[in-house]
Every structure is written in C-alpha cells, then in structure tokens.
C-alpha cells in the first residue's frame, strides 16, 4: 500500500472506495442543488420584500421601441381602433374652466380699493377725475369652521281659569335625546374622521380654532350616537347588495386594541352591481370564514374574490348558487414577482395577460352582449395559449420559486380565472373591491387602530354610508347631515335615503367636477392605449 497517498493496491478495495466517493459526490451535488434553489428562493423573496417596501406597487411593464413584440404572430389580431376625426380632448383642457368662476351662492364681501385723493386730480389741467367704472376681481378665501347655535323656543300655554297643566310643542329632534350638538356637527365629525382621515384629537384643535372646546369623550359620543342612527339604513343597503347577481369582495388588516396590546382584525367590503350600487363593509376580529359565511348567507350569484382559502368552503356549501370569479390582477402579480429570476418566461406570460387587459379596455364602452362576443373571439385564443404554456412549464420550474408559485396559482385558479368570459357583466379583475380598501389603508396610518370589536362595527357602519355616497359622487357632509336628520325622526322612508335615490332628489349636492375629471382621465387613457395598440400592430407586421 502506498503510504503517501493512502491508496490501496487491492483492486476490490479501490472499487469500494471509488463507489463511496461517487456516492459522496452525488449527495454533495444534490445538496448543492437544494442550496442553490433555496438561495434563489430567498433572493426572490428578498427582492419582493424590497419592492413592497421601497419600490412601485403597480405591476407595469413598459414597452420600448427596440423591444421585440412579445405576442405570437399567429394570434388573431385585435379589432383595430380607428382614430376618430375629432381628436379627444386632453386631460388638461377638460380639467380647466370648471373652477374659473366661483359659485353664486357663496357670500361676497366687497372691499373697495381706491386711489389717493392727490391722484384724483388731472395731471394736465388740474380738474377732478370722474369715475367711469370699476374692475372687479374675485379671490376665494376661507375661515375656520363656522359654528352657530340653534335656539329652539318652545311656546308654553296654560288656562287662566283652571290648572289642567301646561301645553307646549314636542322638543326638536336631535341626534341624541337631550344632546347639545346638532346634525351638522355630527356630519362634520364623521366626514372628517372616516372620509378625510382626521383623527378626533386633531378635530379638537379644528373646533378650538372656531372658539369651541370639545372633549375627546364628547366626540366619541357623537360618533357612537351617529353610528347607531345609521344602522337601519346600512341594514337596508346590505339586503339590497345581497340581491345583486354579481358582487365584489375583499378584506384588509386593521390593528384592534385588546388587553395587553393589539391583535389583527379585518375590514371586509362587499360591492353590489349597478342595480344595487352600494358598498357595504363588515368587521371581524379575525380572517376566519365565519365572517363571509354570515354575510353571504342567502346570496346567489357571481362572487369576484381573491384566492383566500376560506371562500372555497363557501362555494362548496352553496351548492353552486355562489359562483367563483378569480382575479387576473392577482395572477399577474405572481408572474411579475418572477420577472427578475425568470425574465423570459415571466415576460411572456405578462405580455399575454396585458393582451387580455387590452381587450377589456377596448370593450369598456360596449354593452354586455358586445363585450361577451369580443371575449369569445379575442380573449379565448389568448387564454388557450396561456393554458398550453402552463402545462408545458409545470415540470420545468422549481415548485418553491416565484415562477413555480405563479404557475401553481394560475393552474389551481384556472376555471375561475376564465369565468369572466361566461358573462359580459363580469370583470377580468377584482380591482373594484381593492380600491374600496384604500379608505381603511389610508385611515389606519392616521388613527392607527380601532378601539375594540364594537368600535370596529361602528366604523364599518359609517364607512358603508360614506363609501356608497362617494361612489355616487355625492357631497359627503351634505349627505350625512340630511340622512342623520331623517333617521332621527319617527317615520322615515329608508329607501328614499339610499345614496342613488338621495342623489336623484338632491342634484345640487352631486360633485359634477369629479365626474368631468374622471371622464377626462378616461379619455386620455383611451387615447394613450390606442397609440400603444397602433404601435403593437406596427411591430407585429
């Protein structure tokens, strides 16, 4: 035996050692592959977290002129959008002029600006100058919240001949029996806190600037009393939303105070269709399926939602009465996260998904029947190519990689992802409900947490009325003040207070400027995408 290299002379021993070395090498290679895969997964997770903290939230993939067109050349071309003879009005031009002149109902305070007496004599002949006219310019200004006090004078009558008692009219109705604050103050507190995210302690300073000091407990009592008045109206809106044939839902986290700290609670939103155009919120202390099960009891129709596992039991237990509609924005987000580690594969799928959204953009102004026909002709082919690609990539991508997770997500949700092609009223994504969650996402950065389960339910009640009013472009303060006033009366017509009905009877409180602004933005967006489609057609030739 060679002592220097410790190599045996026996052939059998050499073979045995060689086999052992080969096994060690194979195990090392397998361990290395696992470590490489784990390293790539951690890098992807780290990149995703960095983007969530510091990067853009929007999954936008820009196309440059030197980028090769990613759609298949064999795909059926989209129906061209011929440019109209009249160029669309630009966003800047549409936004203007709405605020050039101030409304006539605003009070005017005239301020006379005159020249000095020495300048009222002619510099040539010395005769007095004659006033021949005036130039009037207006400047909008404001003061702190203008408060005033109602004095309710109740006449008292009594008989001068007997002592049968005193007759007087009933007291004026108020948000709280015996309270000292009117409906305008209630509407101001609710709209400031839940619509414009101003906390109660900041509102104390705002009221103090008008000369009135309100305690924090008083403001809390105002919120509580107002929420209790709104409960019957919110229950009516909830019943109306459950009558919808399609619905959108989503949830978001909110910290809730408990003894010794906080716990994660949830706000849920349920959005009705155009015939039941209300946004109803719910509050639960966790994310168990009990919350949606309780709310959706008796519902029958399509439900746009994310891939939360709690919905699966709801779909199964409904016996087919609740039909799942998945969100392509969620699927796109998964592939967007895989863009850095698998750029070729991820960009290919992202191009197809953007193609689907481009078809929806063209169908935005169509009727439901026309939209369904376009989806059957244009979207069906794109969906089939995505499905074929997913089947081919199933065994190629690492299951724990971002690309593997995206493929698994799309395959598990495939039937629900394609369901929007069954009905022209359905949408390709669930972004409508995600947008409604912005109220809570922005608000919790200011008020930080809810005080408990009961305050959470009160907040959900108030959010329901405010979000539904905002959906119809209503003046939130005016709507809340009038609704609270009517709800405090004994005989109240709840249907007349629903936001769409209230809008018809109070057209003066509709924000026309907001409607025009949205129309201008939509026009500019359509023009921009029309140019992008023209560029894509030119690239594919």
Numbering strands along the chain, what is their spatial order in the largest sheet?
5-4-3-6-7
Chain-averaged pLDDT: 85
What share of the residues lie within helices?
40-55%
Count the helices. How many?
A: 19
Assembly state: single chain
* Strand element count: 7
Stretches with pLDDT under 50, minimum 5 residues: 64-98
Instruction: Give me the Rg, rounded.
Output: 33 Å
Q: What is the straight-line distance between the termini?
A: 74 Å
Structural class of the secondary structure composition? alpha/beta
Strand percentage: 5-15%
Give the biggest beta sheet: 5 strands, mixed
In N-to-C order, the SSE pattern is HHEEHHHEEEHEHEHHHHHHHHHHHH
Overall geometric form: extended
Overview of this protein structure:
- By secondary structure, the chain is of the alpha/beta class.
- Among the domains are: 183-325 and 434-510, no CATH class; 328-363 and 371-409, no CATH class; 514-541.
- It has 19 helices and seven strands.
- It has helices spanning 11-54, 91-95, 183-195, 200-208, 216-241, 290-295, 310-317, 328-337, 343-362, 368-393, 402-412, 414-417, 431-436, 438-447, 453-471, 476-487, 494-497, 499-505, 512-540, and strands at residues 157-158, 166-167, 246-258, 261-271, 279-284, 301-304, 322-325.
- Strands 5-4-3-6-7 form a five-stranded mixed beta sheet. Strands 1-2 form a two-stranded antiparallel sheet.
- The longest helix is centred in the first third of the chain and has 44 residues, at 11-54.
- It is extended.
- It starts with 10 loop residues before the first helix and ends with a helix.
- Mean pLDDT is 85; it is low at 64-98.
């Amino acid at each position: 035996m060679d002592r220097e290299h410790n190599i045996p002379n026996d052939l059998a021993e050499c073979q045995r050692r060689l086999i052992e070395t080969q096994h060690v090498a194979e195990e090392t290679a397998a361990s290395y592959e696992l470590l490489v895969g784990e390293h790539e997964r951690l890098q992807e997770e780290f990149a995703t977290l960095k983007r969530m903290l510091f990067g853009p939230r929007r999954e936008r993939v820009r196309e440059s002129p030197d980028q090769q067109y990613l759609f298949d050349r064999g795909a059926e071309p989209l129906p061209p959008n011929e440019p109209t003879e009249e160029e669309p009005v630009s966003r800047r031009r549409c936004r203007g002029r709405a605020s050039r002149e101030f409304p006539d109902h605003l009070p005017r305070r005239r301020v006379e600006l005159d020249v000095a007496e020495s300048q009222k004599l002619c510099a040539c002949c010395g005769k007095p100058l004659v006033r021949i006219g005036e130039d009037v310019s207006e400047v909008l200004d404001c003061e702190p919240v203008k408060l005033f006090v109602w004095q309710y004078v109740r006449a008292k009558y009594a008989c001068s001949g007997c002592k049968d008692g005193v007759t007087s009219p009933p007291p004026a109705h108020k948000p709280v029996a015996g309270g000292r604050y009117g409906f305008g103050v209630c509407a101001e507190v609710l709209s400031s806190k839940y619509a414009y995210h101003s906390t109660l302690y900041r509102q104390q300073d705002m009221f103090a600037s008008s000369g009135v000091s309100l305690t924090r407990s008083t403001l809390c009592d105002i919120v509580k009393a107002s929420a209790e008045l709104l409960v019957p109206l919110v229950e009516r809106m909830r019943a109306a939303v459950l009558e919808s044939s399609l619905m959108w839902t989503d949830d978001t986290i909110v910290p809730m105070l408990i003894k010794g700290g906080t716990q994660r609670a949830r706000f849920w939103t349920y959005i009705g269709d155009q015939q039941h155009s209300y946004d109803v919120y719910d509050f639960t202390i966790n994310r168990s399926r009990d919350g949606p099960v309780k709310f959706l009891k008796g519902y029958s129709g399509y439900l746009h939602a994310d891939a939360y596992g709690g919905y699966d039991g709801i779909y199964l237990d409904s016996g087919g009465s609740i039909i799942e509609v998945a969100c392509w924005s969620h699927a796109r987000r998964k592939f967007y996260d895989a863009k850095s580690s698998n750029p070729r594969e991820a960009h290919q799928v992202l191009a197809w998904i953007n193609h689907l959204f481009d078809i929806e953009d063209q169908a935005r102004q169509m009727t439901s029947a026309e939209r369904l026909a376009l989806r059957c002709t244009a979207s069906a082919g794109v969906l089939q190519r995505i499905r074929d690609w997913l089947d081919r990539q199933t065994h190629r991508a690492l299951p724990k990689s971002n690309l593997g997770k995206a493929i698994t997500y799309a395959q598990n949700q495939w039937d629900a992802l394609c369901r929007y092609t069954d009905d022209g009223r359905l949408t390709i994504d669930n972004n409508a409900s995600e947008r409604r969650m912005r109220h809570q996402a922005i608000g919790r950065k200011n008020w930080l947490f809810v005080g408990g389960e009961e305050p959470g339910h009160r907040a959900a009640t108030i959010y329901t009325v405010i979000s539904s009013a905002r959906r119809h472009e209503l003046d939130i303060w005016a709507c809340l003040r009038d609704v609270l006033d009517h709800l405090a009366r004994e005989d109240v017509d709840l249907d007349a207070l629903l936001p769409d009905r209230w809008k018809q009877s109070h057209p003066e409180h509709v924000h026309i400027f907001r409607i025009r602004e949205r129309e201008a933005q939509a026009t500019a967006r359509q023009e921009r995408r029309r140019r992008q489609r023209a560029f894509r057609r030119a690239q594919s030739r």
